[in-house]
Design a protein that fits this description.
132 residues, 6-stranded mixed β-sheet
Length: 132
């Protein structure tokens, strides 16, 4: 969705939701008002995960991205941001779809935490069985 010269997209993963605004620029990524490196700290794998759609489409230094993300943990938030950036890039330039779709970046990861069942210790773990 295009608003005020910027492209808006939403990315989701588990309980995390990322609102992504993308515009032409110099490659700045801001998450919750902080630069990406400051937001994710020393988690290099998560930083790479967030930058992956930009690296595939060679837009690392061509677009500025502003993200508001909430819910979930750091990994889920990073994946939500990745999903939102991928959707925004397709809106920005439709030819990127043929690059991002085969890489699986446009697919929403629908896995969620399974609920705990009664009579069980966790979702699937049973109490220890005693024969006698």
């Amino acid at each position: 969705m295009k608003m005020h010269g910027r492209i808006y997209a939403t990315g989701k993963r588990k309980e995390a939701i990322a609102k992504v605004w993308l515009k032409a620029g110099s490659g700045n990524i801001t998450v919750n008002g902080k630069p990406l490196d400051e937001f994710l700290g020393g988690r290099e794998a998560l930083k790479l995960r967030v930058r992956w759609p930009l690296m595939l489409t060679k837009q690392e230094n061509a677009v500025d991205i502003d993200v508001k993300v909430f819910g979930g943990g750091f990994a889920a938030q990073a994946d939500a941001v990745k999903h939102g950036i991928s959707k925004a890039l397709v809106e920005y330039a439709p030819e990127f779809r043929s690059i991002l779709k085969p890489a699986g970046l446009l697919t929403r990861d629908a896995r969620k935490v399974e609920r705990k069942k009664y009579g069980k210790k966790k979702a699937r773990k049973s109490p220890q069985f005693s024969k006698r």
